[in-house]
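User: I'm putting together a small comparison set for a docking exercise, and I want a reference complex before I start. The sequence is below, and the ligand is manganese (III) ion. Could you produce the 3D structure with the ligand included, as structure tokens?
Assistant: Of course. I'll restate your input first, then give the structure tokens for the complex.
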Amino acid sequence: MSKLILPQLPYNQEALAPAMSAETLEYHHGKHHKAYADKGNELIEKAGLGNKSVEEIIISTYGKADQAPLFNNVAQFWNHNHFWNWMKPNGGGNKLPGALENPVKDAFGGFDQFREKFVADGMAQFGSGWVWLVSDEQGAVSILKTPNGENPLVHGKNAILGCDVWEHSYYIDYRNARQKYLEAFVDKLINWDYVAELYNQGTAKAAA
Ligand code: MN3
């Protein structure tokens, strides 16, 4: 039995255009994400880790050189499961859900400063990786960038938003203009309801 099941996109392939085209989603979801699931399943079986949760596999294989392919494929599988939900048609904009207003204000000063730092840190991630908005146990938020498949789970942080800055996420629509892609992600794509849901889950877990 396969542990990693490629999820359906939560919208049609055409739904995010023009900010993200159907062609990008066809390749990114249908080829890249599928490959992480297929390769991850093969390596999970080989390692005998089928009885562990996806999160446990990610955390236990992080930083182990001989398990790097297993870590990268399973982490990327998890990252992309969330990534599709971090976007929605007609998303983005500067209206934050109530739960996030104060944390964003406390951390950055306001939405505009958050936007500026999220885009700048996404630009500063050299090569492939991700830029994240994370929360800690006290509910404070901060921005984190990580290389390749690495994610906030391995740093003990709750990933409430992530943007894939691998070239496969933007090259069809934006060529080398990563900044334009990051700006479009913030302005037109972010599904803030899902971000708030993950933020509330994180603070509820910390309080339990
Ligand atoms: Mn990707």
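Residues 28, 32, 80, 164, 166, 168-169 surround manganese (III) ion (CB under 6 Å). The chain has a mean pLDDT of 96.
User: Thanks, that's exactly what I needed.
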